[in-house]
């Protein structure tokens, strides 16, 4: 990647390099060191990928740069990045930088924030990530298929000082529905599924392939960045014999804490950073299971300890918090309050709930927000559900009036999680995606400091595209 990047250094970059320019002609190497921003190139195209392992025929996927997941983008907090995306597909695409607080025209929503990238075209995304943390990027165009076929990758924004661990590991999780011969099953957008749990697959991968396990050493302390990149699958991970400590949610630092009953719960699009002290027995293998869907628990991967004895004695078990990100603290005494009701979906008896009298419900819609069903991945002229004055303090109460779970994602912001069903959320947690169980009511707050048109939608992709989407306008 880096040689590609350097060849992409364009005239503007050289100009921005300012004083370095004089030396540039003579010492091209010197300019590299001074390149003021990170440069990446992504090409979205069809590829083959060994999802089921190297011994099985590859699966035809849509991916960035031919790899699953897409290349790891790793940048520094507060340093500009430019990512040129070329569309090698035969349909339009865009890329959304999920969780990054960036200018609206870089947010990647087709029609709403940019003209889609047509086949053969290139669009350069440029932004400066204000927050350090674990983020990800994914297609926001024909998302069911483009995300469902593999167009996603990790995006890590590094803290100024590395967090004190021995290793920093990413597990990007994804869920595929594969046919017996290992190809992606057709049938995206099935209306019945869309009104229920969405397209949950049959094969969960870690970093693009079925996992044989993570090789670890006794005595290590690792930071594990979990990213749920699934279309619809909610995950609850248990680490047999280990006690994960959560240090960040959706990229945003929180007070280090152990999750409720040891389960790390991740809705689609959510990220959780955990610290794991590896105090298992050398030579042993420990299961990492997902038991979110009770009768369907399965092994995601293993922690495979090598046989050597611990590299060091057991550490003390205190965990430093990550340094805070520069987020404005909402002032609740002055907050404007809005109610966001999530409606629709199938009930027990096969009835659609709460959708009876909805006049503006699109024909293919199964869900709605406050009585409106906005369908698709984004398009021009999406009317805002709310217009929020720039700089105002906003509190949203999201009420899940359906019988299904919904991970609700707000673009362009990280909100503070205030309370769930009247109980305040502990550990100072923030997020850009909040998972609501059936009937949950969750209060979140933020300062509307980022102007633009921002999508608020469920990240179970079938729900998003069949009505559970809206736009919040900040101006
Ligand atoms: Cu990751 Cu509009 O979403
Ligand atoms: Cu949903």
Termini separation: 39 Å
Average pLDDT score: 90
**CATH level 1 class label of the largest domain:** Mainly Beta
Query: Looking at the chains present, what oligomeric state does this protein adopt?
Result: single chain
Helix- and strand-based class? mainly beta
Number of helices: 7
Give a brief outline of the structure.
It holds the Pfam family Cu-oxidase_2. This protein has seven helices and 33 strands. With 475 residues, it is mainly beta.
3D architecture notes:
This protein is mainly beta. It folds into 3 domains: 154 residues, Immunoglobulin-like (Sandwich), CATH 2.60.40; 138 residues, Cupredoxins -  blue copper proteins (Immunoglobulin-like, Sandwich); 143 residues, Cupredoxins -  blue copper proteins (Immunoglobulin-like). 8% of the residues lie in helices and 39% in strands. The strands form 7 sheets. Strands 20, 21, 24, 26, 27, 28 and 30 form a 7-stranded mixed sheet that branches. A 6-stranded mixed sheet has the order 10-9-12-17-14-15, with no helix packed on it. It is globular, with a radius of gyration of 22 Å. The N terminus is likely disordered. Bound molecules: CU-O-CU linkage and copper (II) ion. The site of copper (II) ion (CU) has 5 residues, from loops. The site of copper (II) ion has 5 residues, from loops. It comes from Afipia carboxidovorans (strain ATCC 49405 / DSM 1227 / KCTC 32145 / OM5). Keywords: Metal-binding, Oxidoreductase, Plasmid. This is Multicopper oxidase, TAT pathway translocated.
């Amino acid at each position: 990647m880096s040689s590609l990047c350097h060849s992409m250094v364009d005239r503007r970059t050289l100009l921005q390099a300012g004083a370095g320019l004089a030396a540039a002609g003579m010492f091209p190497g010197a300019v590299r060191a001074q390149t003021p921003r990170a440069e990446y190139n992504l090409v979205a195209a069809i590829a083959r990928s060994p999802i089921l392992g190297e011994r099985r025929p590859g699966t035809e996927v849509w991916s960035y740069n031919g790899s699953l997941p897409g290349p790891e983008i790793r940048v520094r907090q507060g340093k500009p990045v430019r990512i040129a995306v070329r569309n090698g597909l035969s349909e339009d695409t865009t890329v959304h930088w999920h969780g990054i607080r960036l200018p609206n025209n870089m947010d990647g929503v087709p029609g709403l924030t940019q003209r889609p990238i047509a086949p053969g075209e290139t669009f350069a995304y440029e932004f400066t990530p204000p927050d350090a943390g674990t983020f990800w990027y994914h297609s926001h165009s024909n998302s069911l298929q483009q995300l469902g076929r593999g167009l996603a990758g990790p995006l890590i924004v590094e803290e100024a000082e590395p967090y004190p661990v021995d290793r920093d590991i990413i597990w990007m999780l994804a869920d595929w529905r594969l046919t017996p011969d290992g190809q992606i099953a057709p049938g995206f957008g099935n209306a019945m599924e869309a009104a229920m749990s969405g397209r949950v697959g049959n094969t969960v991968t870690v970093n693009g392939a079925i996992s044989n396990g993570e090789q670890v050493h006794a005595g290590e302390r690792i930071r594990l960045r979990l990213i749920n990149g699934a279309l619809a699958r909610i995950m609850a991970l248990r680490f047999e014999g280990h006690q994960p400590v959560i240090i960040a949610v959706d990229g945003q630092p929180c007070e280090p804490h152990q999750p409720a009953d040891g389960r790390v719960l991740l809705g689609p699009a959510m990220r959780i950073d955990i610290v794991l002290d590896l105090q298992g027995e050398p030579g042993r293998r420990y299961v990492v299971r997902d038991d979110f869907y009770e009768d369907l628990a399965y092994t995601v991967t293993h922690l495979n300890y090598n046989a050597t004895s611990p590299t060091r004695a057991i550490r003390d078990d205190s965990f430093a918090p990550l340094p805070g990100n520069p987020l404005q603290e909402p002032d609740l005494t002055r907050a404007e309050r809005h109610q966001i009701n999530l409606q629709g979906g199938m009930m027990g008896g096969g009835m659609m709930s709460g959708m009876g009298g909805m006049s503006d419900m699109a024909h293919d819609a199964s869900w709605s927000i406050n009585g409106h069903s906005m369908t698709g991945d984004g398009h021009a002229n999406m009317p805002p559900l709310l217009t929020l004055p720039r700089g105002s303090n906003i509190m949203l109460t999201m009420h899940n009036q359906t019988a299904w779970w919904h991970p609700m994602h707000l673009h362009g912001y990280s909100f503070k999680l205030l309370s769930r069903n009247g109980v305040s959320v502990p550990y100072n947690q923030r997020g850009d995606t909040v998972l609501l169980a059936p009937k949950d009511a969750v209060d979140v707050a933020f300062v509307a400091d980022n102007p633009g048109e921002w999508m608020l939608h469920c990240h179970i992709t079938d729900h998003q595209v069949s009505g559970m989407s809206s736009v919040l306008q900040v101006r």
